[in-house]
Design goal:
361 residues, alpha/beta, Aminopeptidase, 12 helices, 42% helix, binds zinc ion
Length: 361
Amino acid sequence: MMAPQHFRTTYAAARQAFREMAAACGAKVVPHANPAKGAAGEDLSTDVVLFGPADAERLLICTSSTHGAEGFCGSGIQVSWLAAGGAKTLPPRTALLLVHAINPYGFSHVRRVNEDNVDLNRNFVDHAKPYPENKGYVELRDAICPAAWTPESVAQADRILRAYGAKHGDGALSDAIAAGQYFDPQGVFYGGTQPVWSNRTIRAILAPFNATVKLAAFVDLHTGLGPYGFGEIMSNHGAKEPGHFLMKDWWGKEATYFDDGTSSSYLVLGDINIGVCQALSNAKVAGITLEYGTIPKEDMIRAVRADNWLYVHGKVDSAQGRDIKAQIRAAFYQEHDDWKQMVAERGHYVLNRMLNCVAES
Ligand SMILES: [Zn+2]
């Protein structure tokens, strides 16, 4: 397999590769135009292709770039899987829906967040209800994003964060930074005040399928947590949800679960899986986050904080800006052929198996 050739280094090139591969496989690409502009002024779009019957009972959905910068990996998996014949022979009454770059702004600008500084995986909460509190974030905000980003100011901020971790535990520190917050629109892991464009778009993409789909599998491609190149199959479901039992049945201990402590994930409230379940309300849904490791977690978090600082206080088009953009890219995408080959092989395995599970259950 020659998977690395299907990975691209810009959103625009990845979009073109996806469109060309889909067309070569005989599928029609349906674009959903995003109102923002890309880093090079280019148009932004979420591109969708359907293989198999539009009225299928069984559906496999695969999304990339929920966290924009993670799209380099997700796109490469989607394109290389098509190249390897992933959509060639679908089981009966089963369809495959590939959603390329659900957060095209973040992909193009190499940011986790979208055009509103919203973390899409914190945005699928009920915005009519009071938001979950994150007191740790409120307390640590000025250390998470200090006014200046110099070696001295970062070292000072890191001391404050470490002291918080020593007092309350590392899990509490992790949650304070990354569990999500609905308090600071300029801050990291912000969940927003309403359903953002990508949230509305995934619902619109899935709505037509709710008439016929009875069982769906969902694979959301992510990077940034775990060992280099390894893909952790994280169940998106709490232990009481129907999807949890499907996951246990399909994956057993090969998947990880938040409720039994095996998952490397944060406690995420408001992830895209909620939107998929709500859009396909007539179906049972089993959803996973396929999460690939890149660099150590503390370096990844520091890169996210630096990127946040850059857009609040810094200048993207500067030497420091380019340095921070290189850090955030490396935190979510490793420009090495061995890494690309590993993530692609694992991705193809997971997608093939999810396809068989959803078809045969
Ligand atoms: Zn992610």
